Amino acid sequence: MGKGSFRTAPAAFEPFSFCVWSDSQGFCRENPSNRHEPTNSMMKHMGASDANFAVTTGDLAEDGADYKDTRQFFLDRVAKYLGTQKPFFIAWGNHDSYGNSILRKFSDNPSKNREGFGPGNGAFAFSYAQCRFICLDYSSMYSDIDSWLEGELQSPESKNARHRFLFVHVPPYCEIWVDGDALLRKTLVPLMEKYGVEACFSGHTHAYERGFLNNVHYIITGGGSWLDHGETVVKEWPHSIVGGKTPVGSYELGLVNEYVRIIVDEEGWRGECVAFNPDGSEVGVIDTFHNDKP
Description:
Elements: E1 16-21, H1 39-48, E2 53-56, H2 67-83, E3 88-90, E4 124-128, E5 131-135, H3 141-153, H4 156-159, E6 164-167, H5 182-195, E7 199-202, E8 208-213, E9 216-221, E10 240-242, E11 244-248, E12 251-253, E13 257-265, E14 268-276, E15 282-290
Parallel strand pairs: 1-2, 2-3, 5-6, 6-7, 7-9
Antiparallel strand pairs: 1-13, 4-5, 8-9, 8-10, 11-12, 13-14, 14-15
Helix pairs in contact: 1-2, 3-5
């Protein structure tokens, strides 16, 4: 592919991969000599990878209504180092502000195809190689779950998909800082279980956690910038596998800068947590999981 080229999403199945990250919103407190690291290096790493695209579960600036934050944490970081190399989709977070905030003006999500919504607000779904991707917006997630999500999950595009992946900023389940979101456990989780969503990706907590419950993988990939040092385990979920009470390798509480890479092939899909040191150097893969097992 030449410089500046792109390809459209394949309609038929073919192997592909994508990256997921979250909470790249601020300065990295673990590296006072360069507070943009390791986030800049993580964006460059995803951009240089063979991934076909990326998805973020939001919090792309400390204050999405502030231009200075939008410039230094999104335009000069995510857009510059990742967005020039890969397309990416946004499941907005609470720090991204609301409606027509300045940050959201720099996006072009498929939510623009829904009546009453625009390219920078609202839930949306898209297909890639016969897989379905569903992204919720923090600012409208409860109403979208009530009025839109089940219809989407019943659509031919979703029902006939090989795999279904869902992205929501706030995790239904979490072990450190918060225990997740009780309303999402009541409304979202039953829909994912009923309609065969295989993985739910979140952020909000600035750490890495992973669990598996009723055939749904729950992945928190919140290691995009500063980490939740000082927070403690507030809930021990029995289905949690790593993060929280269980270290991820040498990382207590899942406190590690990372992103998740998903590789989809004829056999299914597998996930890898790719970790980085505070100076931006790559640690490598510290956790793996597979679609049909924890």
